[in-house]
Amino acid sequence: MSESTSQATDYRRMWADLGLDLAKHDALLGALGALYQGTYLSQPNRPQAMQYFDFVMSEVHGLRIRELLDARAAGRKVVGSFCVFVPEELVLAVDGVSVGLCAGAEFGTEAAEQILPRTTCSLIKSFWGFTLEKVCPYIAASDLVVGENTCDGKKKSYEQLAPLVRRLHVLDLPQTKSEEGRRLLAAEYRRFAAELEALSDRRITAEGLRAGIGRVNAKRAALARLARLRAADPAPISGLDALLVNQISFYDDPERFTASVNALCDELEARVAEGRGVRAKGAPRILFSGCPMAVPNWKLPALVEGAGAVVVGEESCVGERGLRDLVDDRGATLDDLMDAVVDRYFRVDCAIFTPNPSRLDHARQMASAYGADGVIHYSLQFCQPYQIEGALVERELEKGVLPVLRVDTDYGTGDVEQLRTRVEAFLEQIAG
Ligand code: BJ8
Prior knowledge:
Layout: H1 3-17, H2 22-41, H3 50-58, H4 63-73, E1 78-81, H5 88-93, E2 97-100, H6 109-112, H7 122-132, H8 137-141, E3 144-149, H9 152-158, E4 168-172, H10 179-200, H11 206-229, H12 239-248, H13 254-274, E5 285-290, H14 299-306, E6 310-315, H15 320-323, H16 334-346, H17 357-369, E7 374-380, H18 384-399, E8 404-409, H19 416-431
Parallel strand pairs: 1-2, 1-3, 3-4, 5-6, 5-7, 7-8
Helix pairs in contact: 3-12, 10-16, 11-13, 11-16, 14-19, 17-18
């Protein structure tokens, strides 16, 4: 048997042992492979260093899952989550492994709609579809799944998730940036820390948490370096590739990922110095603002870049909202460090907060820092927090005479042609 055949056999055994439905999982991987080929591998002028991220994607249900299972066999715990409010620093402090769970593709919608109303956003339907149809190896490999009381759809649907996962912990998150809100977040992170200690049978120490903070800070610093390089004109990397790197940050081993992002940035710095980019200098520059885009939700950036523009930033949780701000690691005690973790996460300006003015400031700052010619506000249909806040973002940015296009869409392909027409008209408006 050749090495690749034996590896494929090994993966099939691994997926079967995890309880996946192999036929449905094959269908999912087939569709994902074709989408990746058409969206990513056909792009012109890609940086060489993207090869690492292509490799990660090719092994996202293979080698990475094998690594998670090896970690479990060595006694480490795998913690799966759906939200940037789940602090990876705490998971690392008990020597755990943090992974994002599948929520970016339309799969198992019919099964999901047995539980959820049709008027639920694609992201929630997606994680339910993946779970019910048994095609997500990440949730199957997780010792603990962490939900969060953010929007109503997530909050209410987690109530029914417990029987489908090994162990579920739901974080209660504040909805206001008040003193009471901060106290709630601090109490909830301490309750989460206790859950992790019970799960792993390890104590969180100041040294352990400081080390976890250092590893996540290094990852965020590398992603911030990548974000800054996108300010150059011509942009040295496509928005699709930069988005992919951000998406992979939720799955990959933190050290290996950080080193790979820094290697990519070295190459991009050389490109910027030579004036080389993925598009000609002066190509229209678009900033995205809105809902997170999880793998493989590439529909809108692919349309924008297919029309000749370049996406230069994402004001989103899979993007700058998720990566900005490092945790201060100078505290002497465990309490100091826990407070620093709370301080950092309390600054995340998700649209579930009311009011949420810092998000408008961040969108404005990013548009200016990255030289955006226009902003596309992206909401998933039925996502009330972002759909409603979208009007505010539009008003605020248009005051500064920046054109804004508001798009509400889902994970389906039924609206692609209509979106293409709207995006092309928007780019013409910008050019005019
Ligand atoms: S911190 S943005 S990752 S909650 S799209 S499920 S909001 S109805 S994803 Fe999010 Fe955390 Fe906030 Fe970020 Fe609900 Fe909207 Fe669906 Fe959403």
